[in-house]
Specification:
Layout: E1 3-5, E2 10-12, H1 15-23, E3 36-38, E4 45-47, E5 61-65, E6 78-82, H2 95-102, H3 110-114
Antiparallel strand pairs: 1-2, 3-4, 5-6
The structure holds zinc ion (ZN).
Length: about 120
């Protein structure tokens, strides 16, 4: 379970919770769901290896709460997103938006990323 660090005023999550967040992020039809997911906020892919705990990349991902209005620290309330996208989330309660995103088929655009570093 998540641990609240009183000294630093932060919540520390466990690996299993990051895994749950990953599982709750929408999949890309043409990529392994273990390697890539979609960030429901910006609709760009998230690479699993690009994890914010070990990377400072602008597309590094982290765990965010789906419904931050009722900030329950439970697996169903976790979702993987780009860390930099969190301030851009449109609502405190993203349950509808996430459900809506899952309803579509998303594809990783190989051509687009081939031309980028
Ligand atoms: Zn994003």
């Amino acid at each position: 379970m998540a641990n609240i660090n009183e000294q630093t005023q932060t919540v520390e999550f466990e690996i299993a919770e990051f895994e749950a967040a990953w599982e709750n992020a929408p999949i890309l039809e043409n990529k392994s769901k273990d390697e890539y997911r979609l960030c429901y906020i910006c609709k760009f892919p998230i690479g699993k290896k690009n994890f914010s705990e070990i990377s400072n990349d602008e597309f590094a991902w982290t765990l965010d709460l789906i419904n931050a209005k009722k900030p329950k620290l439970e697996n169903e309330n976790y979702v993987a997103v780009h860390k930099n996208c969190i301030p851009q989330r449109p609502k405190q309660d993203s349950r509808r938006q996430l459900k809506f995103t899952w309803a579509y088929k998303w594809f990783y655009d190989e051509e687009y990323y081939k031309n980028k570093k």
